[in-house]
Amino acid sequence: MAESGPSEKFPETQTVALVRELGGEVEFNTDYPVPKPGRNEVLAKILYTGVCQSDLHTKSGTAAGPDGNPITKIKLPHVGGHEGVGRIIQLGPGCSDDVKIGGLVGIRFASRICRRCEHCLAGKEQYCKKSTNHLHHEDGSFQEYIALDADYLTILPDDIDPVVIGPVLCAGLTAYKAILNCQLKLGDWLVVVGAGGGLGHLAVQYGRAQGALVLGIDKGLGKRDYIMSLGASDFIDFTASSDLIGDVMRITDGGAHAVVVTSGNAKAFAQAADMLRINGTLSCVGIPPGKAFIETPVSSIVIKGLRITGNLVGSLKECLEAVELVRRGVVKPKIEVRPFRDLPVVYEELEKGRITGRVVLKIAKD
Ligand SMILES: [Zn+2]
Ligand SMILES: [Zn+2]
């Protein structure tokens, strides 16, 4: 059992980005308490964090639950952030020997799980019936220090680049899992809707790693060039196409084997299944605000033998698999590092769809 020495001093207060009520403005509070690591918890200093669409929807009060209605049970004041990378600086009592001060850890969506329910036992602990997460229940990575459950730590390899790994912990994991759900074979056509975004640019790369031919859909020349540079075979600017489904059918010679929809816009989901060929898979990721519907006729699903899948991030194991492909250089997150105080501006840009890849905030002062 390891504990930090009594001589070590940690600050009592810290800077956090919070909203006092859903839909309220982001405030920077410099007087927020630093959590004390309890039994079997570690205290981590947060170095960097990505900014996810779900953070935007949660703080705006527009995040949808499984019934399509807004999620209202959210801890207030709300401190978002669930794509963080931190360094362990203190161990609470009772941590096992494999948890080390100085080690890199991830701050993900899931924060605590029960380890006993059917989902935990099946290795799908993100669905744990008693789980808590860093989006709705506990303060996330938009703060300088965080206490984490030592038994559910996302222990990251020492040799990763902490600047780029944050976005892998939510966007990357979600994209990776969406691609696994597509069950692609070498040379299959994969359409990624929203290909230039935080999730999309990673789905393009995980899809390429699976040997798929990728057709990216997004808007603008900048995104086109970037998506093609990732090894995509083709690109459609949806603002310039008068017949999007027809264009997909022509390029893929009869429809995609899989379509991954990462868009934050509900409209993108409505006709996505129409882009599929026989026995194709529609893989939904990310959750657009409000009640979004897939408007594909049942007859189409039956007669074409379509599969429709969704997933909530992924398990810790799948997260570490997604991280490993980045560590090995197979997948390269596109990030832009900005100061912590830029968060409100980043939210505005996310809302307008102006961000290619992911913005990463630098949290820790040097
Ligand atoms: Zn997220
Ligand atoms: Zn459980």
UniProtKB/TrEMBL annotation:
Residues 23-361 form the Enoyl reductase (ER) domain. One of its GO terms (molecular function) is alcohol dehydrogenase (NAD+) activity. Its cofactor is Zn(2+). It comes from the Eukaryota. Keywords: Metal-binding, NAD, Oxidoreductase, Zinc. Pfam families: ADH_N, ADH_zinc_N. GO terms for cellular component: cytoplasm. The keyword Ribonucleoprotein does not apply. The keyword Ubl conjugation does not apply. Belongs to the zinc-containing alcohol dehydrogenase family. PANTHER family: ALCOHOL DEHYDROGENASE 1-RELATED (PTHR42940), DEHYDROGENASE, PUTATIVE (AFU_ORTHOLOGUE AFUA_2G04590)-RELATED (PTHR42940:SF6). This is Enoyl reductase (ER) domain-containing protein.
